[in-house]
Structures are given as structure tokens and as C-alpha cells.
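Hey L., structure's done. Input below.
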Amino acid sequence: MAVEVRVLKEAAAGERRVAATPETVKKLIAAGARVLVERGAGDGAGFVDAAYADAGAGLVDAQGRDSADLLLCVQPPSPDAIADFKTGATLVGVLQPTADAARAEALQAKGIQAFPLERLPRTTRAQAMDVLSSQAGMAGYKAVLIAAQLAPRFFPMLTTAAGTIRPSKVLIVGAGVAGLQGVATAKRLGAQVEGFDVRPETREQIESLGGKFLDLGVSAAGEGGYARQLTEEERALQQQRLADHLKGIDVVVCTAAVPGRPAPKIITTAMVDGMKPGSVIVDLAAETGGNCELTRPGETYAHHGVTIAGPLNLASLGAVHASEMYARNVLNFVALFVKDGALQFDWDDELLAKTVWPERPAAANAAA
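Output:
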């Protein structure tokens, strides 16, 4: 009997993405799977039930999840939802199992074989499965658009009958996927863009997108391409120079994040106090505490004339393209073990072995 794959309807507030599109459903069916999509699962991203049915999927209600061998989601299901899953089923999504004790307990109680995609090794082979990168790109894009909306000024330089309008000065903090997308988006909008990162090797990437690398004269270059820990003296010098520079910046977009850890605090209260009234800070890292000390996750407010926004789940604002990218990431990952209509796990494959949770003992992998 063909493996049953179920696409869950997301339950998190404000979540509009979906873990499979009609395009990826067709490919799962071509791999021999029987695909069931919960009614309304794709509505928020513009993928209606009829499109899934035309792709060959069955449409079902949220009940009966205990028959699915493989369940696909974006955000982690609740403990109550997990309790309804089939014992020993496989679950794929951004699951963060250790972030919630009740969720971890529910997964273990049902013997769920979870693949939290945020654990996927960041290797060249895994790029087509990297949900963190694909969703960060959308988040970086949306963060700059939010900043442009909140800013009480134009981004581009304009020559008008009323005089010349100077371009806004935008600083993107962090040069990961989200930050680089932010640099590119702000540049397209006509702003004067700078990018800052503690890794000096990001200079070339920032400059290739039309931004200027903000060099504060303190290098955190370490071995193997990783940043090293700054000394207290270096950190103090860096913060003072950044504080001085922020006095002339109109918009700051913060994107620095470390998977599985709280976001690093980069913009202090004193720095914000030194910024000019009318400035804007959009903190993309709000979900993990924020890069700015004053960020309030999910809120936008003014602090001494500086607008500070801490938007959450920005990728969901671009639900159509975010879902298309996410669904392709998921398809490429599950293709590692959905073969000929069955689940076939090769535990010698590091992408499976290093992503699965709970981790499998080495002896178990050898036995498998």
C-alpha cells in the first residue's frame, strides 16, 4: 500500500504559508505517494482546494490524522494535535522540538520520527532543502518594505520643483541571507545603503549588491570562516563607533540571528537615544529577542522620536512565494526517503542522520 502523506493546515495565528503546493503534490504522487491535503490548507497562500484536487490529491478534514505515515507542516503542531498522529509517524517541518517541553514530550510519547528542518546541515548538497535560507530571503525583503512604510521620508533621491530630496541612509545589520536581501531591496528602492557584519569576508557580498560595507575598524575574523569572540576592549570600541555612526542613519534594519540561540544584542538603548527623531528601526530578529535592546516582539512603538518595530513571522507576509520555496525545500528533503511509494531511510546519509530528532545512536544507524 502506498505511503500516505498528509499536508497539515497551519493552526498558528497569522500563519498563511503551506507546506506543499499543487506543483509539489504532483511530484509526491509521481514518487508513488498517496497525498491528502487538509481543506483550506493553502487558502492563505492562494492555493485553493480545487488546485490540489486537480493535482491528484485527496481533500480531507483535520480529523483522521492517525492514518498518515508522513505529515508535512510549516510551524510545529500543538501537543494536542500531535496526540492525534499515528504512532511512529514521520513529521517534517520547522519543529523546534526543544523549544517547548510539552511539544517534545508529545512527540516522544507518540514515537514520532521528527525532522526539524532548522537542524539540516548547511552544506552545498542541502542548499535546495534549506528552509531557513529561503524564508529568510522573504523576511529580509518584507522588513525593508515595512521600514520604507514607517519612515517619514522617501528612500530615493528626488529632484522636484520644491527642491532636491536627499536619499535616505539605510543601514542593514547582519549580512546573512535576510541581510543581503535587505541590502538589495533597499538599493532597488533608491536608498543610500550600508551593510554591517562582524565577519569582514561579507564585504564583497554587500558591495556586489550595491551597498557599502560599514567598517568599524574591528575585525572578528576567525578560523574556518567563523567569527571569533571579540575582547571586551574590541567590543567597547566597536559599540562606540557604531553609536557615532547611527547618529546620521535614517533607517536601521536588523537581521543578525544565530539558529537555536537568542539574537545578539547589537543596538543598545544608548545608541537609540543618540539617533535623530524620525529614524526607524525594524528588527527582523524580534522572534528570538531582537538585535535592539528596546525591541518589543510583535509591537511597533516610538521611543524618544525613534520608531522601533519588531514584526513577527515576516515570511508569512509573502505567503505565495514563501510557500512555493518552502514546499520545494520540503519536497527535495522528503525525496531522500520517499521512494517507490514507501518510506526508505538511509541512515548513512548525513542529511537524514543529522536532521532527525530525537537523534539516533550511532549503533542504531549501523543496525539500520
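Residues 4-119+336-367 form a domain with the Rossmann fold fold (CATH 3.40.50.720). DSSP finds twelve helices and 17 strands in the chain.

-- N.
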